[in-house]
Amino acid sequence: MNQINQIIIIPVLLPLASAIAMIFFRRSVPLQRIIGLVSSTLMLAAAVWILGAVISGGMLTMQAGGWRAPFGITLVADLLSAVMIAASALIGLTTVIYSFAVIDKEREKFFYYPLLQLLMMGINGAFLTGDVFNLYVWFEVMLISSFVLLVLGGTPAQLEGAIKYVTINLLSSSVFLAAAGILYGIAGTLNMADLARISPQLEQKELLAIVSILFMITFGVKAAVFPFFFWLPASYHTPPIPVAAIFSGLLTKVGVYALIRFFTTVFPHESGFINGVLLVASALTMLIGVLGAVAQYDIRKLLSFHIVSQIGYMIFGLALHSPLAIAGALFYIVHNIIAKTNLFYISGMIERITGTFDLKKSGGVYARYPFVAVLFLVSALALAGIPPLSGFWAKFVVIKAGLGAEEYIVTGVAIFVSLLTLFSMMKIWNEAFWKEQPQTVAADAPNRYASMGTAGKLMLVSPVILLALASILFGIFFEPVFRIAESAAVQLLDPESYITPILGRKE
Amino acid sequence: MYSIILATASKYLLLLLQMFSVFLLFRGHNEPGGGFVGGLVAAAAYALYFIANGIGKAEKLLAIDPFHLISAGLLLALSSTLPGLAAGGDVMTGIWIDTGIPLLGKVGTPLVFDTGVYFLVLGITLKIIFSLAEEDRQ
Fold first, then answer.
1. Does the pLDDT value for residue A65 go beyond 80?
2. Contact between A1 and B88 using a beta-carbon 8 Å cutoff
3. Less packed terminus of chain A by CB within 10 Å, N or C?
4. Which chain A residues have a beta carbon less than 8 Å from that of B84?
């Protein structure tokens, strides 16, 4: 029993412990803030520790309660999981700090911070679990926290968005549960490693194909893949900015993570047909997402459509199914988590300064706060894929893999969408930053940013600077980061490397 | 509406139901029962007391914020996962001690976990009931 393996329980237990402490001190918001800050910082440190341990020592596995796999609940951190944990911990920390600056007193009193921690617990659990049913449970933990975060505040717009969000997610959860039930019926196990070993020998090929399609639908809904994306732009613009940012940065990526995990590790042999479907879906996701974005004039809606579009690139990488493409998809996920969350943060700053999210009414940010403009440019150009920022490499690798696989049409779509992405980012630049704010609007839109205290400004700006720096660093130090993504991809495409550490060698 | 019969009976029933809920909690590991059911029964005891005597008295009797019950319950459940780790096993590994005391028998971390569930369920149910009773206060 190697005790270092036990560190992978930290990403689950630490947020839970801090949520408990916050519920206990529910009357003292300052204390909750301190607990949130300390635990998120510790979480980031633990995530880096886990990533380091996985890189240097290989996969970490833990059997909860000491019940051997495939009978117990397995927690696994391979490279993919460890990278996702690290990225989510970074977003968790920045969201907590950003929330200090913008979340109102009412929400803070009604368990905003504990809910954020429980959301993180669900996300981390989903990344770490090695069991299909357990994955369902973590999805539910994550979704229930997100439901409450979405409606907290109770404005009519929020409730409208929440109804769509909750309905579609409940539906996809029931599909998930049904698929898990059928899978258990044919395979007799839900442990991912055990499934990876057993599923190639199963007799009922047709049933297995149906199950994998059901899983594709349920994760497709969570990841907002075409044609299941419509709920996302309908709900993500309603909650306060930090909530929208963490949702857009992390929740859809959990869906993408699950797709990657299932169609590389769990059902490797089923992937031929699935990849064909995913390839078409990815092209349509990219295209329709970006077309939706171009038409929007509300910054938050514009960015929400971009989430959909960017998911397409990740699915494209998965569908190509070569080591290079999957490595590209992984790099893309990490890049996108950082850039997308940051753009939401910046949209919150624009709203503070100009008093509106409506691009037609806003303006003049560049003249008043050039540094905000610089921060926006870094993230926007990273998203659009301009070198030397992280997005360039992410797109470069995925497109290179697409050309290598001779999928010229979808690759062409990816390049075209990239142009439109740049166009819509420039639209935000022109409207919010460059042009003068219309006089009629400027008169009755107070600059709430200017009236914030120094501490408030610092809490608003520092997460944005941190993430912008991350975007730049990932671009400059592309090679070492990409090497991690590459070995993660190799690990994913070799099921044996996942099975052996969990179940032991085949006799 | 105040009923003297119910009010008098509820005092005795409160004690009885609480004892029964603890019995259910301890019985739970190998037989029907456990923390969840125990917590519900305990909450039902307070609910009965509230129906008979009004919300003010019920809250006074409880003398603790339901939210503190919730966090205490979660904390107990969380702490029950750690002894297994300290003993060199995996997280959540059950550790059992044979007390030799009749009726009590073996005591272990799963019991601590169940006690946590008991307090959590008690706290949440009471919070819901007290919130619903808010208009009764006027």
1. no
2. yes
3. C
4. 65-66
